[in-house]
Write a structure and sequence with these properties.
With about 280 residues, this protein is of the alpha/beta class. It has a single domain, classed as Aldolase class I (TIM Barrel), CATH 3.20.20. About 40% of the residues lie in helices and about 15% in strands. Strands 1-10-9-8-7-6-3-2 form an eight-stranded parallel beta sheet. It has a two-stranded antiparallel sheet with strand order 4-5. Helix 9 runs parallel beside helix 11 and helix 11 packs antiparallel against helix 12.
């Protein structure tokens, strides 16, 4: 096992080798987003429920180090970048710039296990190149210090038509290019086709985690994505808004843990945890 693999293992369940990761880094872009008005309190709840890992911003990481001192604390992934969507705090719109907000030395000083950057596609040409430069710079630094890099390719930009935002072929292209740029780990959308996704995961040859994406309409949909992703070979799930904006957050996480770690089926989990 190499050093990168050793670090990655800290965000994986030691028995299943998989992971339920609940990110709380959304405030970087969304500001005081619903469900994370008190990120420290939310993080405390998530740790008590027994998540395997979290994505966290530099600022929140500095005020929560004491929450991760126990031996069974979840692993931590540092969000290192910011594709800013507006000059108005919490606003949305076209990406106006993509910059690093932390460096690899920060990750080392604060004992992070993994670092993560976004790779948005469909942006204006200059912004697109900024995103590629962010990934390239962090990939080189991660190789220098043996820290695993998670890259999250997303189809956000206005150059991509609305009907193509979840296009499986574009997801495959974006994932492959992120791998080519130096990703050690990929955080990607599920393509909604288990057979197709399995082939993609096999071809990528690096650990693949599935992102939760926009808010889903029902809990069953959240659990179904987790189930099919894991069956197709994903290493884990990274679900944020669909978890901590849900009034049944604790029960939902317990159900997701059974899906990911114990190969439970969707119907059993929904019934056991009253998630209907």
């Amino acid at each position: 096992m190499g050093i990168k693999e050793l670090r990655l293992s800290r965000v994986l369940n030691p028995e299943s080798g998989k992971s339920v990761i609940i990110p709380i880094d959304h405030g970087l872009v969304m500001g005081n987003v619903s469900g994370l008005q008190n990120p420290v309190k939310t993080l405390e709840k998530l740790i008590n429920i027994g998540i395997d890992g979290t994505l966290i911003s530099p600022g929140i990481s500095k005020i929560t180090t004491d929450l991760f001192t126990s031996k069974d604390a979840p692993g931590r992934i540092l969000t290192m970048d910011l594709p800013l969507p507006s000059t108005i705090p919490g606003g949305s719109g076209d990406t106006i710039g993509h910059k690093l907000i932390a460096d690899i030395q920060f990750a080392i000083r604060y004992a992070f296990d993994v670092v993560k950057v976004l790779l948005p596609w469909g942006e204006k040409e200059n912004i697109q190149m900024e995103s590629i430069e962010v990934v390239e710079k962090v990939a080189n630094e991660c190789d220098k210090w043996n820290i695993p890099l998670m890259v999250e390719p997303v189809l956000w930009g206005n150059s991509i038509p609305k009907e193509k935002k979840n296009d499986p072929e574009l997801i495959e292209h974006a994932s492959r290019m992120a791998l080519e740029f130096g990703a050690d780990i990929l955080k990607i959308p599920y393509t909604d086709d288990e057979t197709e996704f399995k082939e993609l995961v096999n071809n990528l040859k690096v650990p693949v985690f599935v992102l939760g994406g926009p808010k889903m309409n029902n809990i069953e949909g959240v659990i179904k994505v987790a189930k099919e992703s894991i069956k197709a070979g994903a290493k884990g799930i990274v679900f944020g808004r669909n978890v901590w904006q849900n009034p049944k957050m604790e029960s939902l996480i317990m159900g997701l843990k059974e899906i990911v770690h114990n190969n439970a089926n969707v119907e059993e989990v929904i019934k056991k945890y009253n998630l209907a």
